[in-house]
């Protein structure tokens, strides 16, 4: 099955009307090889929709993040990055505040923390999107 129909179904399931702009923006995020900035999404999407403007991309990405279709990653003050949310393959990120390097972390490693936080505060940590900042092995020396 191609990406477009699946993403269109996800948009509808999230309560959004499927417009060419929304679909192209979501496909641009889906086809990115790594976390991608809104500017990179704009450049890719504009190749298919030349009349697209940056404000539409930013608003759409924000709405898609609120709807749980994309994840927003903050990389220590650098440009915000987006990835398509994959409920079947959740992952967490470790971001070095020294060099900006990102590492993926299986969210199951965080399970004890999630359980402790839930037990003590009643707060449920979003396991689909979790970013922890600190120093990598190179920067902590």
Describe the structure.
The chain is 41% helix and 18% strand. The chain contains 5 helices and 6 strands, in the order H-H-E-H-H-E-E-E-E-H-E. It is globular and about 45 Å long. The mean pLDDT is 83. Helix 1 packs across helix 2 and helix 2 (20-31) crosses helix 4. With 141 residues, the chain is α+β, with helices and mostly antiparallel strands. It folds into 2 domains: 3-84, Arc Repressor Mutant, subunit A (Orthogonal Bundle); 91-134, Dna Ligase, domain 1, CATH 3.30.1490.190. The termini are far apart. A 3-stranded antiparallel beta sheet has the order 1-3-2.
Q: What are the defining features of this structure?
A:
alpha+beta, Arc Repressor Mutant, subunit A, Dna Ligase, domain 1, 3-stranded antiparallel sheet, 3-stranded mixed sheet, 5 helices, 18% strand
Provide a quick synopsis of the model:
The chain is of the alpha+beta class and 141 residues long.
- What is the CATH topology classification name of the largest domain? Arc Repressor Mutant, subunit A
Which CATH-level-2 architecture of the largest domain?
Orthogonal Bundle
Number of helices: 5
- The share of residues in extended strands comes to 15-25%
Indicate the overall shape.
globular
Number of domains: 2
What is the CATH homology-level superfamily of the largest domain?
A: Winged helix-like DNA-binding domain superfamily/Winged helix DNA-binding domain
The strand order across the widest sheet is 1-3-2
Structural class by sheet pairing and helices = alpha+beta
Order of helices and strands, N to C?
HHEHHEEEEHE
CATH top-level class of the largest domain: Mainly Alpha
Give the termini distance in whole angstroms. Answer: 48 Å
- What composes the largest sheet? 3 strands, antiparallel
Query: Which residues form runs of ≥5 with pLDDT under 50?
Result: none
């Amino acid at each position: 099955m191609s990406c477009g129909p699946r993403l269109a179904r996800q948009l509808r399931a999230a309560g959004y009307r499927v417009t060419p702009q929304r679909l192209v923006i979501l496909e641009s995020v889906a086809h990115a090889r790594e976390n991608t900035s809104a500017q990179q999404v704009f450049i890719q999407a504009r190749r298919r929709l030349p009349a697209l403007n940056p404000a539409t991309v930013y608003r759409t990405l924000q709405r898609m993040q609120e709807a749980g279709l994309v994840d927003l990653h903050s990389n220590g003050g650098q440009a915000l990055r987006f990835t398509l949310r994959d409920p079947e393959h959740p992952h967490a990120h470790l971001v070095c505040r020294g060099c900006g390097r990102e590492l993926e972390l299986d969210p199951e490693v965080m399970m004890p923390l999630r359980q402790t936080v839930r037990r003590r505060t009643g707060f449920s940590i979003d396991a689909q999107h979790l970013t922890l900042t600190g120093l990598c092995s190179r920067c902590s020396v």
